[in-house]
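Internal ticket #5521
Category: modeling
Description: The requester needs a full-assembly model to guide mutagenesis choices. All entity lines are attached below as received. Residue total reported by intake: 809.
Assigned to: D.W.
Attached entities:
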Amino acid sequence: MSLKQSYYRYRITFAKAGMARFIGHLDLQSLFQKAIKRAKLPVAYSEGFNPHQLLSFAAPLPLGMAGYAEILEVFMAHEVTADRLFAALDAQLPQGIAIVGIMEVPSVGKSAAAIIRMATYSITFSQALDLHTIIPNVLSSQSIEVEIKSKKGVKTADIRPDIHDICIETPRSLWAVLACGSERNLKPEILAQHILKVSGIAPEDCDISYERLAIGQDVPPL
Amino acid sequence: MYPDKILLQSQKPGRYVGNEINMARKNPADVATRFAFAFPDVYEVGMSHNGLQILYAAFNARQDVYCERAFAPWPDMEALMRENALPLKSLETYSPLADFDFVGFTLQYEMTFTNILNMLDLANIPIKAADRGEEFPIICGGGPCAANPEPLADFFDFFFIGEAEEAFGQVFDLYAAHKAKGGAKTAFLQELAALPGIYVPAFYDVKYNTDGTISSFAPNNPHAPPRVQKVFVKDMDAAFYPDAPLVPLIETIHDRAVIELFRGCIRGCRFCQAGYIYRPHRQKSVDTLVSQAQQLIESTGHEEISLLSLASNDYPHLEQLVDTLCDHFDDGKVSISLPSLRIDATNSNVLHKVQSVRKSGLTFAPEGGSQRMRDVIKKDITRDDITQGARLAFEGGWDRLKLYFMVGLPTEDEGDLAAIGRLCEELVEIYYRLPKERRKRPVSISVSTSCFVPKPFTPFQWFGQHTAEEFMHKQKHVKQSIRSKQINYKYHDAETSVIEGALARGDRRAAAAIEQAWRLGARFDGWSEHFDADIWRRAFDTVGLSVDFYAHRPRPYDEVLPWDFIDMRINKEYLVKESMKAMDVIQ
């Protein structure tokens, strides 16, 4: 902790879309490390036998999903203005990844990963659904039991507490604010599959695409 | 780009999208020549290959050429592409390979040959040169396997013999002129055939004796020279080297910047094809290497730089180079790795500088277990070199050693095999002679044996390779010679090595076996999870060829070998003499 106190912490908001959607989480980390290195930024390193750059992501973005306000935190050994950091780093990023904003934050305090509680997703179905009946039903339910498949098997869970808000955008797309983070997390796929199920549509008959519009401590109500 | 739905069903979509740092971006309409650099293995392997980086950058340094890349799709992606009728496309502009002027394959390993046919087929390009009309790209190849291009002769329009860096300029110049004129492919190939370092197989006829050996090999076209001379870079300091290599966005085999210390080898290990075909030995100066290293680190952001060569010890200024690099990167955030360093007293200083951080594995390649065996293969390393080196390594804090040997070498007997185990046991004993407080954990020695594959242009090119059964018998013997629990023994697949052997010394007729194996489903044969020996046996049988004839049959010195027409700048009499000397060692 004492080490980090003397460093400067920056919270970087970035977008990852297009071709960059196919870069996995670990690869993204290595991509940013190299970009920081090319930008010749005074990044801080961990101590120990294998020093590594002090950078961390708030919440991994699933492979293939676009994210428009993802969060990365990085420590610098010397102070850099947010503007300079923005220009230097953005110039080194591949197509599909772009800096949206940078803010210097106190070097002590919880990491972004520890703060994140919610994310807003855009969910688009390949066909129109009766969302104006389904969504109010979802939001007025006390509990929604769904089957969730994991490596360990199938379990039943109540996803209602993890749905903060849903707003219909078009007859085949919606925005949903869902729990996201280390404490509670709801994958948008699970909500989307539930919507298909109550619509009486087989999963193989409808393609669904997802985008993560924002993540944060409190995503503003839709 | 391939549709999202397809990409997301594949194991690693990142293999198929390109967009890497330092990728060449041009408008295909603005260039005279579109070249697709095709690597017949998976993306992560191909992107770790330094030859690709050099040629990609060198081709793209020309304004009139746009070089793009394609890799072999992994079988999961191949299935998706075939199911959805999607052709193989380049990573830069997602253009179908059939739209290019050239598709150039790098020939690094015989067991990638079926992938070449598969990539052509996925690109909707007929696999045989004779079936490709004017509308199809010109298919070319180069790399170490072009030392004997004959098994691939039916599939290719021309080969680069030697180092393509030295020949491509003239090829592109000729092509641009030819394209402007609107000439036919054959006319272009005729002009090409006259250039040094270019082999156009269609311009040569091969005749055979009744016993299947070659009776004559001669040009059938006045433009084609009777012998094809290899070309090579003369001045390594002046040679083109990429200043901004591609940096992949997904993890590859080697995630690091690479500088090339030298080409060729001053040793003459008799089994080693690289030692012969990359002659002469040519090195770069420390100044060149340091400036290239600095440039690479700046342009890539890599935190590791690897010093590439056939044997780093043979670089005379190694210590000076490592010192200078350490000074340049003195923030300690760039590590230096020496993948082919032999440990001895003279360089233990270097060793400590390069690996001060990670005391991971060190590697020795004695190749032969007994001194007699090492003398036969002219591997210039003694038992003392190995034991001394190991002692130095143990004292320096390393406790993981890797040792590489070969089985199936000429004149090898059971004593030579038992010596492998004995040597390794000795190293374990050396470790336990260290004072107890300096041994943090039990020593670990991993021993790996490969199966000897005789290769063209080596003194062993006439040698009859072992059969798979003989190899397996010998592997068992090595295993029995190892008793210590600290030694872990691994061996290469014998059947893969036999097929590699048959293809390495095959003639033109072997093309039929490669094609048949591919039709039977052979892909990624260098990957043990994909290699199917049964397919290859059936393939040879079906087309009436014998693995025995190509792999196991010893050749007399006066037999016409399929690669004799290539002038590799190695005297054949010299190879004969070396071969005889090797056999003399037994007496």
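Resolution: model delivered.
Comment from assignee: Chain A touches chain B through 27 residues (CB under 8 Å).
Ticket closed.
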